[in-house]
Specification:
Largest interface: A-B, 20 and 21 residues
Oligomer: heterodimer
Structural class of chain A: alpha/beta
Mean pLDDT of chain A: 89
Number of strands of chain A: 5
Largest sheet of chain B: 5 strands, mixed
Low-confidence stretches of chain A: none
């Protein structure tokens, strides 16, 4: 059974709409799951609450994680994911407005796989999303998938 | 309270001199300063996150308007949308520059001996100045290489920008009377406004002629001041400009 391509964790409705637009344009992601805050993201990934019935094999290939989120913030989500062996191997790409050093340092300390600062210019933003999608969904290899050259 | 004891040598032998000082005011001033710095840091952090997101929305949906409704949008409407997008690009640059400027006041200087001549060569190569630049021998100094690189980058890229219409553009870097100098043969500026040239977001030329947000010199000045030095400018309209800066012995405030 095919898994989710991307778990997109984003609370800002404008950014959410634009990211979905960019993903649609780039044609790399077919199945995108959206979580509007950190708590929902954790529920999805750990199959709790409203996502208690999520079946095996539907883990996302990559998580796009905003940092400033309601309820449970991005860094806390990252911490929980990388701490738990069940979710540790899912690549996490932080996609955030913040270029602040302390966010960068903290994210890498927690084991983030990649950190991208969202460009303000939409063309650049769409290009970044396209590259992220292409890299993590097509080029990058994950355990459990077929290893093809 | 602060209590200190110090030995006092007298003919009758060693006495102890003690002083008791009320440091309440000094301590509370320090605490207030710390709080102010902390607030500034949160402010910069907030700008970084919160101001960029709505800008992205404006730019993204302006482009979406252009793309999805092109047939329905008359050329004038298209140009209005272009104005909107230009506005967001400018605002985005302003935010970036403001953040850069605010960081300068807060980061610690890492001072080492710096080969200024080699640094200028590096920056010039990065900017692609080529033959336009004449570099005279420069003495080394003691300072933060990364920040000094920023000063040279701002001064040299300004020199290149404002002299690009000269035939041919000429930039000269030398050292005289204790100051490093960058001179160009570009458009120059009116000395009546010399006191404004280092102000944040201050520009003396129309943005349609010469792009930029007007923070480059403010940043250069801040860095030079933190090194305990000074920077000044001399110019004549149509006859180029010379910027000179000195690096003090050690670290400034």
């Amino acid at each position: 059974m095919r898994g989710i391509d991307i778990l997109l964790v984003e609370d800002n409705p404008g950014d959410l709409a634009l990211t979905m637009r960019a993903l649609a344009r780039s044609n790399v992601a077919n199945r995108v799951q959206v979580a509007r805050d950190g708590a929902e993201a954790l529920e999805f990934l750990f199959r709790e609450g409203q996502h208690g019935g999520r079946s095996d094999g539907t883990d996302p290939a990559v998580i796009l994680l905003d940092l400033k989120l309601p309820k449970v913030d991005g860094l806390e989500v990252l911490h929980r994911l990388k701490e738990d062996p069940r979710t540790r191997q899912i690549p996490v790409v932080v996609l955030t407005s913040s270029g602040e050093q302390r966010d960068l340092v903290e994210s890498y300390q927690l084991g983030v796989n990649s950190y991208i600062v969202k460009p303000v210019d939409f063309e650049q933003f769409a290009e970044a999303v396209r590259q992220i999608g292409f890299y993590w969904l097509l080029l990058n290899q994950r355990p459990g998938g077929p290893a093809e050259p | 309270m602060e209590i200190s004891l110090s030995p006092l040598e007298t003919e009758e032998g060693t006495l102890a001199m003690s002083s008791i000082r009320d440091v309440t005011e000094s301590r509370s001033a320090q605490a207030a300063l710390k709080q102010a710095v902390g607030e500034l840091e949160s402010f910069a952090y907030s700008i970084s996150h919160d101001l960029r997101a709505p800008l992205r929305t404006i730019d993204g949906f302006s482009q979406a308007l252009q793309e999805d409704f092109a047939p329905a949008l008359p050329p004038e409407a298209q140009s209005y949308v272009e104005w909107i997008r230009q506005g967001t690009r400018t605002m985005s640059r302003l935010i970036d520059d403001l953040l850069r400027f605010s960081h300068l006041g807060r980061q610690a200087l890492v001072c080492r001996p710096v080969d200024m001549e080699a640094l200028v060569r590096e920056v010039a190569e990065g900017l692609g100045l080529g033959d336009a630049l004449t570099l005279h021998p420069l003495p080394p100094c003691h300072g933060d290489r990364a920040l000094l690189r920023q000063v040279w980058t701002n001064l040299l890229s300004n020199a290149a920008k404002y002299s690009r219409n000269a035939e041919p553009p000429r930039i000269q870097v030398d050292f005289q009377a204790g100051a490093y100098r960058v001179g160009d043969n570009g458009v120059g500026f009116d000395m009546r406004y010399a006191h404004k040239v280092f102000g944040v977001f201050q520009r003396l030329h129309p943005v349609e002629e010469f792009e930029g947000t007007g923070v480059g010199l403010a940043i250069a000045q801040r860095i030079v001041q933190r090194h305990g030095g000074t920077i000044c400018a001399e110019s004549e309209p149509g006859r180029g400009a010379t910027f000179s800066f000195s690096i003090g012995g050690g670290t400034g405030p």
